[in-house]
UniProtKB/TrEMBL annotation:
Residues 90-293 form the VWFA domain. The chain crosses the membrane at residues 6-28, 54-73, 310-327. PROSITE patterns: VWFA (PS50234). This is Ca-activated chloride channel family protein. It comes from Pseudobacteriovorax antillogorgiicola. PANTHER family: LEUCINE ZIPPER PROTEIN 4, SPORE GERMINATION PROTEIN. InterPro entries: UPF0353/GerABKA_families (IPR050768), VWF_A (IPR002035), vWFA_dom_sf (IPR036465). Pfam families: VWA (PF00092). Keywords: Cell membrane, Membrane, Transmembrane, Transmembrane helix. Gene3D superfamilies: von Willebrand factor, type A domain (3.40.50.410). It comes from the Bacteria. SUPFAM superfamilies: vWA-like (SSF53300).
Length: 336
């Protein structure tokens, strides 16, 4: 036997409290009757019978409470394996890990904020396959399309520019690589394909517009997220200072929205501008990816389905309460 919500079992420790409350309630009731009836109370009361009734009620309500607690904990006996067909979209998350993504205009910095937002996205997925590609001067697929969201989260822990030996920011090359990975990983019947591109928009002549057009020809939609502030921010150099140009002036990383908006327009995606750290991945997923892309068959999975038995204890508690209500009704009728 296993438990679906074992955390509710601690409520069983409160079972004695039910009996205590019933006993206290009976004591207060006797005091009120004694005050009201005076000397006649002793003649009218039947102490032995009353004690038995209190004892029976303590047992009944305590047992009903225990059954309710056990039902809440969802006891399960036995299970069976079922083969389930998985339907969803293919989502490749493409993250810029160039030096400019270390700018701290968004706390703690652009890259770390993006990582946290992607982790939140994983909890929203509804059977979709997701992959991870990071890029700077070049890119590589860090996590191929997968249904294992826990594995994806582990890959996110190592997200950073230290993995990329070539500096720079080649958005076009990253889109081509993500596009290629989506097409090579496509399963029969898989329809929806999308790229979530998280970057500050700086590109070093890698042809992002042409790459977007090629992706659009295969039905791939791109949802760019421009991350950064309007005025730009200095780029940490890793030694406690900031990156400077040849003349010694501090280099500012500014958001290039024009290219990202054009990429979204070409692929019929949606551009989101993030200046506060909110990447709106929940909106992109729920209102666009799930609606714009037709879910396809992305494989089958076997799932262990437990036989829930909580209803046995729920029904037992109900009958105990009905019985107690009936007994109390008869007792009151007798007293009248």
């Amino acid at each position: 036997m296993t438990w679906g919500d074992a955390e509710y079992l601690w409520l069983l420790t409160l079972t004695p409290l039910v009996s205590i409350l019933i006993i206290l309630s009976n004591m207060f009731r006797k005091k009120r009757l004694a005050r009201f009836l005076g000397q006649r109370y002793k003649d009218l009361s039947q102490s032995l019978e009353r004690r038995r009734q209190v004892l029976y009620r303590c047992l009944a309500l305590s047992l009903a409470f225990a059954c309710i607690c056990i039902a809440l904990a969802r006891p399960r006996w036995g299970y069976e394996w079922r083969t389930l067909e998985r339907k969803g979209a293919d989502i490749m998350v493409v993250v810029d890990v160039s030096k400019s993504m270390n700018a701290e205009d968004i706390k703690p910095n652009r890259l770390q904020r993006a990582r946290r937002e992607i982790i939140d996205l994983l909890s929203m997925l509804q059977g979709d396959r997701i992959g991870l590609l990071q890029f700077a001067g070049v890119g590589f697929v860090q996590c191929p399309l997968t249904l294992d969201y826990m594995a994806m989260e582990l890959f996110l822990d190592s997200l950073g520019e230290s993995m990329i030996p070539v500096p720079g920011s080649a958005i076009g090359n990253a889109i081509r690589l993500a596009h290629k990975s989506l097409m090579e990983s496509a399963t029969e019947g898989s329809v929806g394909k999308s790229i979530i591109l998280i970057t500050d928009g700086e590109d070093h002549e890698s042809g992002p517009i042409q790459a977007a057009q090629d992706a659009a020809s295969d039905g791939v939609r791109i949802y760019p997220i421009g991350i950064g502030s309007e005025g730009g921010a200095p780029i940490p150099d890793g030694d406690g200072g900031y990156v400077k140009d040849q003349s010694g002036r501090m280099v500012l990383s500014r958001l290039d929205e024009g290219t990202l908006e054009e990429i979204a327009r070409i692929t019929e995606g949606r551009y989101v501008r993030s200046t506060t750290g909110d990447l709106d991945l929940d909106i992109i997923y729920s209102q666009h990816i799930r609606k714009d892309l037709k879910p396809g068959n992305i494989g089958e999975t076997r799932e262990k389905v437990w036989h829930e038995s909580f209803w046995i204890f729920a029904v037992a508690a109900m009958f105990i309460l009905i019985f107690d209500f009936h007994i109390q009704g008869r007792r009151l009728s007798t007293e009248k």
